[in-house]
């Protein structure tokens, strides 16, 4: 299986590039946010537990997220692989994901990290907010999201470098130029 983790700061292009990777390589997409919303909407047991945290404004515990991801992953038996979008966000989540995949006889094949300077991320998100009307794409919220990214998610860079899985991708240029850089990494796996 070709299992890819894609990450980068908010506005780095993860969603856009995920779609291109999925289309080119026939991978399944697992987005933690989408998965949580679906579990809650379908009123699964795990979804009800997750909703009990979310409805109180609390973060869903890592163990529960891993259980939900494992459940979704297990339904993709004949999959060519999966792209994990928005997960892991912390080192404990990365360790839990590694363990979950190992228990299923597979592993992360590569980590694709879209590297974009903060000034560019802010500009992209402010522009997206103007176009899409997303209320969370404002200066104050963007800065908070960047702070969380740098404090909690950026440490994954060193974690995945030690695992020899990290692939930093220059995230500037056209969508196609960035995708070409990603393809050159994936095709070496």
Describe this structure in words.
This protein has 189 residues and is an alpha/beta fold. 56% of the residues lie in helices and 14% in strands. It contains nine helices and five strands; from the N terminus they run βαβαααβαβαααβα. It has helices at 14-25, 32-41, 45-54, 62-74, 91-102, 118-132, 139-153, 156-162, 175-186; strands at 2-8, 28-31, 81-85, 110-115, 166-170. α1 (14-25) crosses α9, α2 packs across α3 (45-54) and α6 (118-132) packs across α7 (139-153). The chain is globular, with a radius of gyration of 16 Å. The model has no long low-confidence stretch (mean pLDDT 91).
Would you tell me the structural class of the helices and strands? alpha/beta
Total helical elements? 9
How are the strands of the biggest sheet laid out side by side?
A: 2-3-1-4-5
Total domain modules: 1
**Which percent bin holds the helix content?**
55-70%
Uncertain stretches of 5 or more adjacent residues: none
| C-alpha Rg (nearest Å) | 16 Å
List the secondary-structure elements in sequence, H or E.
EHEHHHEHEHHHEH
Look at the structure and give the CATH class. Answer: Alpha Beta
CATH superfamily: P-loop containing nucleotide triphosphate hydrolases
Which CATH architecture would you pick? Answer: 3-Layer(aba) Sandwich
- The shape is globular
Mean pLDDT: 91
Could you tell me the number of beta strands? 5
Query: What fraction strand?
Result: 5-15%
What gap, in angstroms, lies between the N and C termini? 11 Å
* Main beta sheet strand tally, sense and closure: 5 strands, parallel
CATH fold-level topology = Rossmann fold
């Amino acid at each position: 299986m070709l299992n890819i983790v894609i990450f980068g700061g908010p506005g780095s292009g993860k969603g856009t590039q995920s779609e291109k990777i999925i289309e080119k390589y026939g991978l399944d997409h697992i987005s933690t946010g989408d998965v949580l919303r679906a579990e809650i909407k379908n009123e699964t047991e795990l979804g009800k537990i997750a909703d009990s945290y979310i409805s109180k404004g609390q973060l869903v515990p890592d163990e529960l997220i891993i259980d939900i991801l494992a459940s979704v992953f297990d339904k993709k038996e004949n999959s060519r692989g999966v792209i994990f979008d928005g997960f892991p966000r912390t080192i404990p989540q990365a360790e839990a994901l590694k363990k979950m995949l190992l228990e299923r006889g597979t592993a992360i094949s590569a980590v694709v990290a879209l590297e974009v300077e903060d000034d560019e991320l802010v500009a992209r998100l402010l522009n997206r907010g103007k176009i899409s009307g997303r209320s969370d794409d404002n200066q104050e919220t963007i800065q908070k999201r960047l702070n969380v990214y740098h404090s909690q998610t950026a440490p994954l860079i060193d974690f995945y470098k030690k695992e020899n899985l990290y692939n930093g991708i220059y995230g500037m240029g056209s969508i196609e130029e960035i995708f070409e850089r990603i393809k050159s990494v994936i095709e070496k796996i």
